[in-house]
Amino acid sequence: xxxxxxxxxxxxxxxxxxxxxxxxxxxxxxxxxxxxxxxxxxxxxxxxxxxxxxxxxxxxxxxxxxxxxxxxxxxxxxxxxxxxxxxxxxxxxxxxxxxxxxxxxxxxxxxxxxxxxxxxxxxxxxxxxxxxxxxxxxxxxxxxxxxxxxxxxxxxxxxxxxxxxxxxxxxxxxxxxxxxxxxxxxxxxxxxxxxxxxxxxxxxxxxxxxxxxxxxxxxxxxxxxxxxxxxxxxxxxxxxxxxxxxxxxxxxxxxxxxxxxxxxxxxxxxxxxxxxxxxxxxxxxxxxxxxxxxxxxxxxxxxxxxxxxxxxxxxxxxxxxxxxxxxxxxxxxx
Amino acid sequence: xxxxxxxxxxxxxxxxxxxxxxxxxxxxxxxxxxxxxxxxxxxxxxxxxxxxxxxxxxxxxxxxxxxxxxxxxxxxxxxxxxxxxxxxxxxxxxxxxxxxxxxxxxxxxxxxxxxxxxxxxxxxxxxxxxxxxxxxxxxxxxxxxxxxxxxxxxxxxxxxxxxxxxxxxxxxxxxxxxxxxxxxxxxxxxxxxxxxxxxxxxxxxxxxxxxxxxxxxxxxxxxxxxxxxxxxxxxxxxxxxxxxxxxxxxxxxxxxxxxxxxxxxxxxxxxxxxxxxxxxxxxxxxxxxxxxxxxxxxxxxxxxxxxxxxxxxxxxxxxxxxxxxxxxxxxxxx
Lengths: 334, 334
Known about the structure:
The structure is a homodimer. By secondary structure, the first copy, chain A, is α/β, with parallel strands linked by helices. The first copy, chain A, has three domains: 4-46, no CATH class; 58-157 and 291-318, Rossmann fold; 160-290, Rossmann fold (3-Layer(aba) Sandwich), CATH 3.40.50. The first copy, chain A, contains twelve helices and twelve strands. Chain A has helices spanning 4-11, 15-22, 30-43, 49-56, 72-87, 101-110, 128-135, 160-173, 189-205, 220-232, 246-258, 292-307; strands at 61-66, 91-96, 118-121, 141-144, 155-158, 179-182, 214-215, 240-243, 268-272, 286-289, 316-318, 321-323. In chain A, strands 2-1-3-4-5-11 form a six-stranded parallel beta sheet, with helices on one face. In chain A, strands 7-6-8-9-10-12 form a six-stranded mixed beta sheet, sandwiched between helices. In chain A, helix 1 crosses helix 2 and helix 5 crosses helix 12. The longest helix of chain A has 17 residues, at 189-205. Chain A is elongated, with a radius of gyration of 23 Å. Chain A starts with a helix and ends in an 11-residue tail after the last strand. Mean pLDDT of chain A is 89; it is low at 48-57. Chains A and B meet through helix 5, strand 2, helix 6 and helix 11 of A and helix 5, strand 2, helix 6 and helix 11 of B.
């Protein structure tokens, strides 16, 4: 198997330059990088994690911790992160806590030891032992989607509050007055920001918001199903519902279907986070799309920059977009 | 932080028993395991990967290699695997090659060094250098869904051929004679098995199969979209299509929608692999559901048994089920 010396010889550069070029460091010109990459590809050169760790004192693995890999949002973040990492000859592994803070803490602890060169994380844990485990990681840390209390690290996110305020405003513009939200856990800052946008839209419309129209703490399809059942059972059920994420939306749609109601005739639905099947659902679902793949790329980029020596890069805020389909209609529409 | 001695003391057993109990070994009684787990939970004891590797010479990480984590089938396999692994105090990391054999080979090579205690893999690579990298892994290996040529390791799969033969038979029972299949790459044995089941259904019906009704090599939504466009452009397009996986189905449905055609009025659709949104699509999609979560649990189980000393456990074949919804109808149905 070819070694770094063979690559250096073929490319006509030093082994140090090969290392820096394959790590995509700014000190190497694009021409040299191209030359080194071509030589590495031709010689089938793969720096192993072990070899890299031995020679450079660090691993070539980046980690991504997600709460729920079944949610395609995180799967797309993972894909973007892996693609960007591969460009700099890093590889990615994903760990999913299945929304279980205890498992998440164990994962962080168990990978504490230098297995990972850096870590990008969307976390569900909020207690102190967790945050200290997270900040005690050896390599750089990047947060994705939300910032747990007390953790300072660059964050990649979208402007949750603003896009929610504008999108939920459409319900009121159509004449809805009974608008509900299925929200996430109170200690998720994304849920808080989306809820804050939701409250601002109510304020913009000059309407009072009933407490019973906000359902907290729901995650996944089962959470969406339960919350929508509760909403439909209210003495005065809402005519429009904003769902705080995609899987919650799927559960909510199942509850509406089971109750024999129609979207948007009986109830309008707006989802946060798009899904590739939303355009094919009956009716196609209007959704706020986050650029998940780009968020993953940005997270890898922030890690690579820190691995390259940059201190505390700034947060990255990417735009989310409302994709209008057919799940919103004026109340009483048929 | 509590150590293994503290757990042993609280549970009233030896440290060796703690280790064996937390690894879920058969030599420890269920009562002792429960006692040890309770003590570990009470003391908040987490054996770190490093500590475990040091004390036992091996890691507590199991790896799952998948071709495409955006496909919810693999995400559910990952969830099942992580849940089963957690019961034995192992953690899981997932690596996705994004259907790129080169990246897959690099991932295998880069994790070659004992980072992982064991590896479960659904692979896309088929060449020799890849299979030798895979079989050169240090810990036990388990295959999920398909077996690359030349690799001997226990496999977790469903009975692809049988369930496909029966399900595709429904098209013929309804009176279809022009039935097509969007298949995967020729060197995927799952694609081969499903194609074989498809051919058998044709044979059962006593009908000739036109070559143009089999589209090879398509993966992902883009592949399904392209293949369905080709099928619709044939001089004699099919009236029913079997899609070899879920994402291919999503792409095929997009092509049908774009062409202004209706399912099942103009064309019937049968999917391999279910999705949680399939019941909500217009129309709800009939699908062959694999028990993805259970397959992940079985894969972890096979790894744990090998880590516990068992030599070459047998393959695990789990049943797949046809879930009848509304995307099949007789030809010319409206």
